[in-house]
Amino acid sequence: MARGNRRMTIFLDDRDYRQFIQLLRQAVERFKLECHEYCAMPNHYHIAIRPSLPNLSDALQLLNARYAHWWNRRYAEVGHVFQGRFKSQVVDDERYALALCRYIALNPVRARLVQRPEDWRWSSYASAVGLRPTPSFLAASASLALFGIGDESVLRQRFSSFVLAGGVDDLDDDRIRSSDLILGDAGLMAHIQPPGGVVL
Question: Is residue 92 classed as helix, strand or coil in its secondary structure?
Fold first, then answer.
């Protein structure tokens, strides 16, 4: 995830959101990333990504730099748009992968921007559950695979039921909001140097 500098609003209107999602698509395609989910909020964004190469930092640095350059040009501003380096966490446990799905989907609900997660236009959730067309760069099937084997419509229903039953506060959310580098097996810390794996 990355946040606006000094928590400032970085998406002021639909054009800003569309531009960011277009740049996200370009980064996913250029760096051969697997984008499981995304959600752009007024002053920050969350994405769940699995890289296929050790290039995650390069991809997100380019995404943030390109959006910041575009944003400064559009609003005749200068300086930092994002607050430092992006935050990343390796997710190495199915429980936390599920919690991450729910956390990203419910972000707009938690912020009281919408009543239901599918109503937020700048999130992948509605596409993942079949309520909107799926963007070409979104690997929604990767998130659906967390809900077992079966027909896509059944998996979408399981995903939706899981998200909606979870409420807006869950103990696992505290781990996702934490500064922990790895969500999963603590022993993995000795064998991996983040960023890598699926990240928030």
Answer: strand
Higher pLDDT, 48 or 166: 48
Which pLDDT band, with edges at 50, 70 and 90, does 98 fall under? Answer: confident
- Specify whether the CB–CB gap between 99 and 91 falls below 8 A: no
Residue 61's pLDDT band (boundaries 50, 70, 90)? very high
Domain region containing 70: 2-75
Same domain? For 97 and 157 the reply is yes
Instruction: Determine the Cα–Cα distance for residues 48 and 200; give it in Å rounded to an integer.
Output: 5
What are phi and psi for residue 182, nearest 5 degrees?
-130, 130
* Whether residue 97 sits in one domain with residue 67: no
Give the chain's largest Cα–Cα span. 51
Beta strand 90-92 with 182-184 is parallel
Domain assignment present for 170: yes
Strands (E), the chain: 2-3, 33-41, 44-51, 90-92, 182-184
Tens digit of pLDDT for each residue in 84-97?
777 665 666 577 78
